[in-house]
Amino acid sequence: MEIRDAHFPGRAPLDAYGNGGFRFADMSHRGSLLCIPSGIYGWNLKDPTEFSKEAFQRVLDEQDGIEVLLVGTGLDLRPLPGELKELFREANILADPMSTGAAVRTYNVLLSENRAVAAALLAVD
After folding, report:
1. Is the distance from CB of 99 to CB of 50 less than 8 angstroms?
2. Is 68 exposed, middle or buried (0-12, 13-18, 19+ CB in 10 A)?
3. pLDDT tens digits for range 83-97
4. How much is the pTM?
5. Which of 16, 73, 78, 94: CA 20 to 30 A from 55?
């Protein structure tokens, strides 16, 4: 049996969130998500305290296709650590932390406007 990382190869609006996961493209995913230009990936983070350069490496790898990064920090807004804010600034990415619900809604709007948007979304129950 082959086990692969969760990956949807494309961009899609998020239809629902909660209960520990997300629904999009007629699929569901349990856990957190990274939505970047190359697709939607499972993200094995559960809490903002786990945010690090390594956690956002896929975002940085695709920085040329990203102007805005929405960071869903769970049920409540949690600020990004200073070193991450600086890292995104150097990559010319506007990183905007907000609750996961607000990030999902904003992502869908910006995606529908064909903007260069990405999202890093912590799952909420």
Report:
1. no
2. middle
3. 999 999 999 999 999
4. 0.93
5. 16
